């Protein structure tokens, strides 16, 4: 049984939300751990709705992982780095990261079970090895933990914002500002619970952006650097700027002249400290061919 000890640096309205904010556990997973007696606050009993106060010590005991029931599948993977503790994957567009919402096969996890000799078990039977996610129709880099020690280290880096994640996106329209920071709250959309939206409440989402190229055809190639990791964060923030990601039928136009299978959003750089050695590692993945093909078709820059 692995243990994580979290010390609150401020007040928080709910314990389950605090755990989700400061670990890679989802709020629902945190609730199950609390209900199962795996979480204590200052050594005492805990409840999901309990408020967290500054200085509270929250202990999360993660139970031994259940045996993985998902089947390994020989799905091609671009594994750009692998050792005994981590693997870095350049995920192709169209590949769902893990099972859920009726999806039980054909996922990155199914592929990992086939290609790798071990995976961490902290996230349970559905998400072994998964420390962070990228959307099904987003391509690019993500790191996978091959043991629980690596998982805890990587999760801590993400929570403490020392793990760098940088994306490239082609946006609709020509952006005015060269660079800036988007800082909002993101929550479930009241109109469609499968979508996220900028809201007056929810979870803080911070994204830095920098314009790379502007095209006379009416598009902008933009770099986004995540400071937090909320669901659909870059896509929601791009829409908030008034320049949705090209090919994003959820947050942008349903009609795209480029005949794309998904949005032109690519996680091209990943920076992390190796869980065993502490060495700073930087990985980059080139834009996929369909992305560069669109860029080459746009003509002159502004």
Your description of this structure?
With 302 residues, the protein is an alpha+beta fold. The chain has three domains: 61 residues, RNA-binding S4 domain (Structural Genomics Hypothetical 15.5 Kd Protein In mrcA-pckA Intergenic Region, Chain A, Roll), CATH 3.10.290; 93 residues, Pseudouridine synthase (2-Layer Sandwich), CATH 3.30.2350.10; 107 residues, Pseudouridine synthase (2-Layer Sandwich), CATH 3.30.2350.10. The chain contains six helices and 13 strands. Strands 4, 5, 6, 7, 8, 9, 10, 11, 12 and 13 form a ten-stranded mixed β-sheet that branches. A three-stranded antiparallel β-sheet has the order 1-3-2. A hairpin with a 3-residue loop joins strand 10 and strand 11. Helix 1 crosses helix 2. The radius of gyration is 20 Å and the shape is globular. 37% of the residues are buried. The mean pLDDT is 91.
Keyword list:
three-stranded antiparallel sheet, Pseudouridine synthase, 302 residues, Structural Genomics Hypothetical 15.5 Kd Protein In mrcA-pckA Intergenic Region, Chain A, alpha+beta, 30% strand
Category from helices, strands and their pairing: alpha+beta
- Put simply, the count of helices is 6
Strand content: 25-35%
CATH architecture of the largest domain: 2-Layer Sandwich
What is the CATH third-level topology name of the largest domain?
Answer: Pseudouridine synthase
Mean pLDDT: 91
**Strand-and-helix sequence, N→C?**
EHHEEEEHEHEEEEEHEEH
Can you count the beta strands?
13
Specify the biggest β-sheet: 10 strands, mixed
Number of domains: 3
């Amino acid at each position: 049984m692995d243990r994580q000890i979290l010390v609150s640096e401020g007040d928080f309205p709910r314990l389950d939300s605090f755990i989700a904010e400061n670990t890679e556990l989802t709020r629902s997973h945190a609730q199950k751990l609390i209900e199962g007696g795996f979480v204590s606050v200052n050594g005492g009993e805990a409840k999901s709705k309990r408020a967290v106060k500054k200085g509270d010590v929250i202990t999360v005991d993660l139970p031994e992982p259940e045996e993985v029931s998902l089947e390994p599948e020989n799905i091609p993977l671009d594994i750009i780095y692998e050792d005994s503790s981590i693997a870095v994957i350049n995920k192709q567009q169209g590949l769902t990261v893990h099972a859920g919402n009726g999806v039980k096969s054909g996922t990155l996890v199914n592929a990992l079970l086939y290609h790798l000799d071990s995976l961490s078990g902290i996230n349970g039977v559905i998400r072994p090895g998964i420390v962070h996610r990228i959307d099904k129709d987003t391509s690019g880099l993500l790191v996978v933990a091959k043991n629980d020690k690596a998982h805890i280290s990587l999760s801590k880096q993400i929570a403490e914002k020392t793990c760098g994640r940088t994306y490239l996106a082609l946006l609709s329209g020509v952006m005015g500002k060269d660079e800036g920071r988007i800082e909002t709250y993101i929550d479930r959309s009241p109109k469609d619970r499968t979508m996220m939206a900028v809201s007056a409440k929810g979870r803080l989402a911070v994204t830095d952006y920098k314009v790379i190229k502007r095209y006379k055809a009416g598009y902008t190639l933009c770099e986004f650097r995540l400071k937090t990791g909320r669901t659909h964060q870059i896509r929601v923030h791009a829409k908030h700027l008034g320049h949705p990601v090209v090919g994003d039928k959820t947050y942008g136009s349903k009609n795209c002249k480029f005949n794309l299978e998904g949005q032109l959003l690519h996680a091209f750089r990943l920076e992390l400290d190796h869980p065993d050695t502490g060495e700073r590692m930087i990985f980059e993945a080139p834009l996929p061919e369909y992305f560069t093909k669109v860029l080459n078709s746009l003509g002159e820059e502004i």
